[in-house]
Design a protein that fits this description.
It is a single chain. The chain is an all-alpha fold. It has one domain. Helix content is 78%, strand content 0%. The protein is built from 9 helices and no strands.
Length: 213
């Protein structure tokens, strides 16, 4: 018997999850994950001093929309991978579309700027710490997500781990926006994406062991 056939047979014998059970369990454990991440932002990094003015502007919410979209894509992907036999194609298409859209916006923005301002738009003032901070905040939130997902039955543990890492990264990057004043599309496309990619990569390594049958 092939390995895939054996996994499929075992999955048929697994107890059925209640309707929307995966989503409810994940959402429940996302609450403490969000709280610990928010505490990290407030007490470790500090809130940006212009936060009241920032939240009424479009750039703050555009950045949050990007990070939430990637986190939501990670949620959807983890949900699909937690159901043996479900296709992961749609969440992967969503993630690819979001990444391409932001990359295009960043390229258009950089091209439209004067040559002397392009490097500043890409590096901002915090490029050296942005990806690291998002990764650290993601690591703080990750145990809650991985604990919630341990009852799932993914047939691709590393991909499921990457999805869980992306989910925590989306949460961490969104709340990191409460501290980070950077607003250019180029900065977000490079450094926020790098931080979330690092978290997804770390999640893949962890998932190899946590989600192993």
């Amino acid at each position: 018997m092939k390995t895939d056939d054996l996994i499929a047979a075992l999955a048929l014998d697994a107890p059925a999850l209640p309707p929307r059970g995966i989503e409810r369990r994940l959402l429940l454990w996302m609450i403490p994950a969000a709280l610990i991440t928010l505490c990290g932002v407030v007490f470790w990094l500090g809130l940006r001093p212009d936060l009241p003015a920032a939240v009424v502007g479009p750039t703050f919410w555009a950045k949050a929309a990007y990070t939430l979209a990637l986190g939501g894509g990670g949620f959807w992907l983890l949900d699909r991978l937690g159901r043996p036999g479900s296709s992961a194609r749609q969440p992967l298409i969503l993630l690819g579309a979001v990444l391409i859209l932001v990359a295009v916006l960043a390229i258009v923005e950089v091209i439209a700027l004067p040559a002397g301002d392009r490097m500043s738009a890409m590096l901002g003032r915090s490029w050296q710490v942005c990806a690291r901070n998002i990764l650290v905040l993601s690591v703080a939130a990750a145990p809650f997500v991985f604990f919630a997902a341990r009852r799932f039955a993914p047939t691709r543990p590393m991909v499921a781990g990457a999805a869980a890492g992306l989910l925590t990264a989306g949460l961490a990057a969104t709340l990191y926006g409460l501290h980070c004043p950077e607003h250019t599309a180029a900065f977000v496309a490079i450094w926020y994406t790098l931080g979330m990619a690092l978290s997804a990569g770390a999640g893949a390594v962890v998932g190899r062991f946590v989600f192993r049958w």
